[in-house]
Amino acid sequence: MDLFIVGDVHGCLNTFIKLLEKWNPREEILIQLGDLVDRGNHSPAVLRLAFELEQNFRAETVFLKGNHELMMQEYLSDPVAGKNWLNNGGSQTLFQFDQVGVDPDHYSNWILNLPLYWENEHLFISHAGISDFATLDDPRHPDGLLWNRKPLRDIGKLQVIGHTPRWNGEPQFFPESKAWNIDTCAYGGICLSALRLSETGQFKEIISVPTDERDVG
């Protein structure tokens, strides 16, 4: 099956729904790169949608962990040790949960078990990618798969990441590392993007949906 890879959603529910209209689950696996939550206006509803999609399309969906899911997970486990999340969108997200009358702990186990990456023979997909300093098994490492900001290295597979915003709203391909960055700043009022690839990594299409004004501000 082909792949439909979606960048950082950050609470932009209506924008995410519009982008999902372009996904064909009969022919494509949906892979979302993490950072479903924080900064946008609808983090609880985005989590619920992702959870329900995974329940209804178990063989056709993969939701990866982003650094914002990790921070949320750590806060829910220990609010004192995880208080850094509150200054990175967590306070707003907790307020949203309170407004809709949902306990965020409802999703804590699901978030805990989100994978750090997805790969096959041709592709490696993660939130922030593999640099020369990366470690695959430590989600807290500053140069690891959830936090890396350093240039990616050529690992012999095509990498697809989000995490580092592309403020011009355009996904970028880096030929030196054979990597795509598709975080196009949905929470910044720009757009949410998806990359359509074959299972061997052949480029097919970029799909971008402008951020719905209901999702930000």
Walkthrough of the structure:
- One of its GO terms (molecular function) is bis(5'-nucleosyl)-tetraphosphatase (symmetrical) activity.
- It comes from Mariniradius saccharolyticus AK6.
- InterPro entries: Ap4A_hydrolase, Calcineurin-like_PHP, Metallo-depent_PP-like.
- This is Metallophosphoesterase.
- The protein contains five helices and ten strands.
- With 217 residues, it is of the alpha/beta class.
- It has a single domain (2-215), classed as Purple Acid Phosphatase, chain A, domain 2.
- The strands form two sheets. A five-stranded mixed beta sheet has the order 3-2-1-9-10. Strands 4-5-6-8-7 form a five-stranded mixed beta sheet, with no helix packed on it.
- The mean pLDDT is 97.
Sequence-ordered SSE layout with sheet pairings:
Layout: E1 2-6, H1 13-20, E2 28-32, H2 43-56, E3 61-63, H3 67-77, H4 90-100, H5 108-112, E4 117-119, E5 123-126, E6 158-161, E7 172-174, E8 179-181, E9 191-197, E10 203-210
Parallel strand pairs: 1-2, 2-3, 5-6, 6-8
Antiparallel strand pairs: 1-9, 4-5, 7-8, 9-10
